[in-house]
Write a structure and sequence with these properties.
Blueprint (H helix, E strand, L loop, with lengths): L1 E10 L9 E9 L3 E5 L6 H9 L6 E6 L2 E5 L13 E4 L11 H5 L1 H5 L4 H14 L15 H14 L4 E5 L7 H18 L2 E6 L2 H7 L2 E6 L2 E6 L1 H6 L4 H6 L6 E4 L5 H10 L11 E4 L4 E4 L10 E12 L4 E7 L2 E7 L10 E6 L5 E3 L9
Parallel strand pairs: 3-8, 3-9, 6-7, 7-8
Antiparallel strand pairs: 1-2, 1-4, 4-5, 9-10, 11-12, 12-18, 13-17, 14-15, 14-17, 15-16
Bound molecules: adenosine-5'-triphosphate.
Length: 364
Amino acid sequence: MPTIALSQVRKTYPGSSTDAVRSLDLEIADGEFMCLLGPSGCGKTTTLRMIAGLENLSAGELRIGDRVVDSAVEATFVPPEDRKLGLVFQSYALWPHLTIERNTDFGLRLRKVPKAERIKRTDDVMRALGIEQYRDRYPSQLSGGQQQRVALARMLAVSPGVLLLDEPLSNLDARLRLEMRAELKRIHGKFGTTIVFVTHDQWEAMTLATTIAVMNDGVIQQMGTPDDIYERPANRFVAEFVGSPPINLIEQNANTPIAAAIASYLDGRLHDVGAVALTGIRPEAIVLHTDAKDVPQDSFNLRAVIEGVLPTGGSWIVEVRAGGQLLFMTTHVAPTLSAGDDVTMVVEPAAFHLFDTDGQRMLN
Ligand code: ATP
C-alpha cells in the first residue's frame, strides 16, 4: 500500500492564470526514496507543500496511508501538524535564542521523550551530521551550511516515518554535499524512512533516489528508476534534462548528412524509419576510431573531424563534427587525438534513442 498517493491533483494559485501543477498522479510507496526532479518553476515545491499540508489542492485527492488528507471535493483537509511528516525546507527556521543542542532536541522535548533516550538520540544524530562541536553555539554563529545540517538533525532526531526535503543540501559545499548525500542514503537504508526529496540537480536525484519523477511545466514527464530515466528517457525533455554533457540530438528532417546516414542505417532495422523525427546519442555511447579496419561490423559509423578536446579532470569531453553536426563524446582514457584529426565515429545499434514528431520515445 502506498504511503502517499496523489491522484489527478491540480494546483492553481489564486490570481494565477496557469496551473502550478496539473493532472498529477504520484504514488510514493512505503520506504521509497522519491526524488522530484525538474527545472526551476516546474512545480516540485508546490507538490511537496501540498503533501505537507502547507498548500491545499485545487482539484484531485491526496491520501497518506489509508486516510484522505486533502481533496478538493470534500472538506477533508488535515492540517500539517496532524500528518506526522518531517519537513526540511531550503529556508530552514532554527530557533535563534536556542543553542544548537536545544534546537536539535527540540522535537524530542516537545514529544516528552524520556531524558536518557533524548540525550542518546540527540548525540547520535549530531554526530552523524558532524555538528556536535557546535552544540553550545547559537544559529547566528554558524554558516548557512552548518545551519542546514542542524535543521536536518532536528528533523531526523524525531525519526518521522516520512521525510519531506526541499533542496536540503543546497547551501553545502561540494564535498559536504556528497557526504550528506551518503549520510541520507544510509539513514534511508537503516531506518526505512520514506523520503520525498525535491531537487533540480540531476546528479543528486540519480545518486539518491529509488524512484525519480521528472517534472516540467507542472506535469510529470516520466517516473522510474534512475536507470530508466537515463537509459530509456520517455521523451525529448527528459532526454535533454538528464545527462551531462547533454545527449546529442539529431533532427532527422534537418537534411544533414548525419541525419541521412542515421536514417539509412536504421532502415531495415526498424519497420517505420519515417516516423523517427529525432535521434539521441549519449556522449559516452560514441567511440572514435582512427583506423577504419577497427570499426565493428554491425555498428553505425561515420567520418568525423575532431574540433576540440576539453579535459575535465580524470575524463575528457571531445567535440567532433560529423555529417554537418557538432557532437559531444566523453572518454575516461586520455585522448591521443587533437583538433583537426580525422576519425570514424562509431555507435552501437542499441545506443540510439528514437523519438517521434511529438518528442515521445519510440519503442526501440
Ligand atoms: P524552484 O526549483 O525554483 O523552487 P519549483 O519547481 O519548486 O521551482 P514551484 O515553486 O512549485 O516550482 O512553482 C511552480 C509554479 O507556481 C511557478 O510558476 C511559480 O511561479 C508558481 N508559484 C509558486 N508559489 C506561488 C504562490 N505562492 N503564488 C503564486 N504562484 C506561485
